[in-house]
């Protein structure tokens, strides 16, 4: 039974000394996903290509307030960013940035990435645009998209 408990016994001629076997274990908590609403250019750059970008998948949601499909997609992306189990196909945590295409920074980023329809969601990994979708997808399809990235 002592071996089952991970104990080692050292015996001398008179007494037995039981010493617990010491092991070191590490555990990491789930990486929390972040949501960056109405991000500006500096936030976009920091999140998509900063030091943390190596360990995360970043979804950039280009939207406008007048866009009805954008209002349908936004809660889905928010739920994904709030879900600690939501991961990319490679196991990376997922951050979400929303970019208002009618703001000055949003217009610049929209032109840079040639956004032609709303909503458009671009997935960035290690600072690179790796995949995108256009339109308001239902939640199962958005989660399927994450698994492909």
Description:
- The protein is α/β, with parallel strands linked by helices and 149 residues long.
- The protein has helices spanning 41-49, 68-82, 104-112, 139-148; strands spanning 7-11, 16-20, 35-36, 57-63, 94-100, 120-125, 128-134.
- The chain has a single domain (35-148), classed as 3-Layer(aba) Sandwich (Glutaredoxin).
- The chain has four helices and seven strands.
- The strands form two sheets. The protein has a five-stranded mixed beta sheet with strand order 3-5-4-6-7, sandwiched between helices. A two-stranded antiparallel ribbon has the order 1-2.
- InterPro entries: Thioredoxin-like_sf (IPR036249), Thioredoxin_domain (IPR013766).
- Residues 17-149 form the Thioredoxin domain.
- GO terms for molecular function: protein-disulfide reductase activity.
- This is Thioredoxin-like protein.
